[in-house]
Structure formats: C-alpha cells, structure tokens
Amino acid sequence: MRGISPFIKDDRFKGSLAVEAYKCKIGMLGKTVKTRKGAEMKLPVKLDHFVIVKPTRDASGNFEKAEEIHKIIGDKPKSLEISFQSNDPRDIWRTFFAYYTKTARYCYGDGEKAFRLNEKSGQYEEIECNIETCPLFEQGLCKPHGILTFTLRNVPLIASEAVVFRTTSANTIRAITAVLAHYFKITRGFIAGIPLKLVLRKKTQVDKNGHQREINYVSLHFDGTNDELVEEALKRANKMMALEKQWKEVRKVLPSTDIIEAETVEEIEAVAEEFHEPSKFEEGIEDVEEAKNVVQPTIKPDDDEATASADEVYIDGDISDTEDVSDDEEDEAW
C-alpha cells in the first residue's frame, strides 16, 4: 500500500479465503453522548489488552466477548499465540485505503489506483489513488486499513477457525507489514504453521505541538533467532510442498474473493460504525470535557517512518481502535 506500507506490494484487492469466526479487538464503545446537532454517538474507549469477540452484539452495542476462549487465553491478554494457515500474503494480511459510509464502501485503493462508487450508476469507477492530493484522505475520511487473519494456537476448540484483527492505525499497519516482510524473506515464504505472537506494544511519541503521549500499536513476534525461524520453516516445508501444489490447483476453480463482493451489508455497516463515523469529528460534542476524548484521525505518515526496519516497528501514533482508539484510536471502537 503506497504511502503506508512499502515493504510488500501485491494485489491486496483479492481477500482471504478464510471465513471470519471471531474478531480480535483492542477497544470498545463507551458512554453515549450527544453532538451539537442532537445526534447520539458512543465515545471510543481504548484497551491495554486484546479481546476476542463473537460476531454478535450485546445490549450495549459492543460485540460479545468470547468467554469460553478467554478462559484459556486469560481475561486481559497483552499477547496472543497465533499462527497462519496459508503461505499466501493475501490470505494473511490485506492493506488498502478506504472510505466507508454507513451503507457502502464509497472508495478504496492501494495508493496508486482506486475504485470509487458512482452514486448515479451504482458502479465502481477506476481513478488515481494519491493520498497526497486526495481530499477525502486530507479530511480524515479515507483511512488506511489493515486486516490480519490468523488462528489461535492454544485454543483447541477453534484451532481451525479464523480470527480477524482490523486496524486503521498507520503505525500498526507499518509494523505488521515490516515484520511479515522480514519473516517471509527469512523463511522463503514458508510461514504457515510457525508459532508466532500477536503483541500489543507501547511507545512514547511527541506530537506536532511538542507534547508527549503514550501510544499503543500491534505487531508480530517470534520467540527465537533468525536461525530458529529458518528451522521452524524447514520442518514444515517438506510437508507443505505437496499440499501447496495441490492447493494451487484447487484455488484455480474456486470462486472469486474480491473484497467488494465478499463484504455483506452487515459487514459494511460494522466497519463504517467502527472506523468511519464522521460525526465524531465533524458535529462536535456538547460536553467540552467529553470532546477531549475524541481523537482526530491520523492524516499521513512521515516519510522517514515508512523506512523503519523489521526490528524498529515502534512507529508513531497508534492504537487505531479505539479497533487499534486514536485513529490509531478510533480504529477499534466495537
């Protein structure tokens, strides 16, 4: 994704074949307040731990916590033992820029080309995608998105079911992209099944006004050296080779998984609610003290940060939740 994650470049418009069974969150929806125009909105609340949730919602509007899973991984885990079920980067990590309304993905792109909805025809039209000149990006409406698909290694009851982590944090996107690029290079692409950790990290950053603030971001971690990572890859390579050859043949006859077709109306509404609610930033809030809790979305990352190495994934301003609560933190409001 040009402008955010320069390390891996491929066709990310084709989505993962995995079916999302659970969501991984680092934020939630908090108390309800009224905007100056009288509309109600829920303030995002960021968490300092991961929460695995079901696709159903509770009475508060938040996704239901998967209590049976948390009995195994702990109530407030700061890291998750995970693995990937594919060696294809597109099945693991998808990144793109997008602007969601409450009913549709209005525009999405990869930093070079984009597809924007023609409201008259109802069709998507190809346009240039340039975050340096795009008014939607400058206004904070279009945001970088990252979707990580994995399984939880230490939870036998869902060992083969996909867990999906979404983020609109530039820091998290760059961190995960950089680490994945390093792992793919070291393993020569044999990453499926390798024991990894999804970790929530902190760093202190200085904002444009010179004020320090602590931010969270999500990254990946392997417990071991590069040589040990290679050994893990070799253990699986021989077994995977025959399966990969067979899988490539099977995939040729599978239906398309373009993400525009893959997302249901319910999914679009959920993404719009979590990451693309303009009223949070445009309508204002009556309570001035509450307004301080609303964090403006990240605009564009500094160029020097885009060159961070895999070991320097302490990028700036994250937790795109509230799903990862600045835009880094608005990101994972449930």
User: Which range does the strand content fall in?
Assistant: 25-35%
Compute the CA-based radius of gyration: 19 Å
Assign a percent range to the helix content: 25-40%
Sheet having the most strands: 12 strands, mixed
Number of strands: 12
* Backbone structural class: alpha+beta
Query: What distance separates the N and C termini?
Result: 25 Å
Q: How many distinct helices?
A: 10
What can you see in these coordinates?
The chain has 334 residues and is of the alpha+beta class. The protein is 26% helix and 30% strand. It has ten helices and twelve strands. Strands 1, 2, 3, 4, 5, 6, 7, 8, 9, 10, 11 and 12 form a twelve-stranded mixed β-sheet that branches. Strand 2 (40-57) and strand 3 (63-65) form a beta hairpin. The chain is globular and about 60 Å long.
Question: How would you briefly describe this protein structure?
Answer:
By secondary structure, the chain is of the alpha+beta class. The chain is built from ten helices and twelve strands.
Which characteristics define this entry?
single chain; alpha+beta; twelve-stranded mixed sheet; 26% helix; globular; 334 residues; disordered C terminus
Layout of helices and strands:
Layout: E1 20-34, E2 40-57, E3 63-65, H1 67-73, E4 79-83, H2 89-92, E5 93-100, E6 105-109, E7 113-117, E8 124-128, H3 135-138, E9 143-152, E10 162-167, H4 170-187, E11 196-206, E12 212-221, H5 226-252, H6 259-262, H7 265-275, H8 279-282, H9 288-291, H10 326-329
Parallel strand pairs: 1-10
Antiparallel strand pairs: 1-2, 2-3, 4-9, 4-11, 5-6, 5-9, 6-7, 7-8, 9-10, 11-12
